[in-house]
Write a structure and sequence with these properties.
single chain, mainly alpha, 82% helix
Length: 151
């Protein structure tokens, strides 16, 4: 079965949500690493960072990869469907609207950061991203099938 762009976006979202949610469990994961590896896990001697910081940095790599995977696949879909003479304008509008749409969630998350622990907030954000992804997949899939494709 060939890997389609939609499948890549779905896999990227699943990886993004899983790794983002795992950032909420850095302390637990650090404890597991410490119990498993013992003194070898003392990253402070090698890096000058705590084990929790090292684990968080390690988890940031797949979060960034998954985010890039979703972005690249989404741009590929736009590139496939947009007329060549309109692609620059479409990408510019997408960037502006994306930046504009991110302002409200940033204020909400910033306000919640004042009242909720970081761990809870990260898990809440991951759950929200998952719900939005499922909603957009269920709602957007029938509409995407009716959009005309350009060559």
């Amino acid at each position: 079965q060939p890997v389609t762009t939609a499948r890549v976006v779905t896999m990227g979202f699943v990886l993004f949500v899983a790794t983002l949610a795992s950032l909420g469990f850095v302390q637990n994961l650090s404890d597991i690493v410490q119990e498993t590896l013992g003194p070898v896990a003392d990253a402070y001697e090698w890096t000058g960072l705590s084990l929790q910081s090292t684990v968080a940095m390690g988890l940031a790599i797949p979060v960034g990869f998954a985010f890039s995977l979703v972005n690249v696949a989404a741009r590929a879909v736009l590139h496939e469907r947009a007329p060549a003479e309109m692609q620059g304008r479409i990408f510019a509008v997408q960037m502006v609207l994306g930046s504009l749409a991110s302002i409200i969630p940033l204020f909400i998350v910033g306000g919640l950061a004042e009242v909720l622990p970081a761990r809870v907030l990260i898990i809440l954000v991951a759950a929200t991203v998952l719900v939005i992804a499922i909603y957009s997949r269920l709602w957007g899939a029938p509409r995407a099938a009716t959009l005309p494709r350009t060559a």
